[in-house]
Design goal:
It is built from 2 helices and no strands. It is mostly helical and about 80 residues long. It has one domain. The chain starts with 17 loop residues before the first helix and ends with a helix. About 5% of the residues are buried. InterPro entries: SASP_alpha/beta-type (IPR001448), SASP_alpha/beta-type_CS (IPR018126), SASP_DNA-binding (IPR050847), SASP_sf_alpha/beta (IPR038300).
Length: about 80
């Protein structure tokens, strides 16, 4: 698969968020000590590693949303 292509049927509600999500993916992978393939092909990565990255991204996004909601209600 060529770099930048995605076979997922999921689509972003805010397409401009793609760069931020990619950055978050690399940050989480680095924190976990997981090397993301430079060619963009994840086929040789362990499912456990890709799942760990996705799980941590989800936790971080939920945390960010909770903080934003808490800020809205405290005003």
């Amino acid at each position: 698969m060529a770099q930048g292509q995605n076979r997922s049927s999921n689509s972003l509600v805010v397409p401009q968020a793609n760069a931020a999500l990619d950055q978050l993916k690399y940050e989480v992978a680095q924190e976990l000590g997981i090397q993301i393939p430079q060619d963009g092909y994840y086929g040789f990565m362990a499912t456990r590693d890709t799942g760990a990255i996705g799980g941590h991204i989800t936790r971080r996004l939920v945390q960010i949303a909770e903080q934003q909601l808490a800020g809205q209600f405290s005003r």
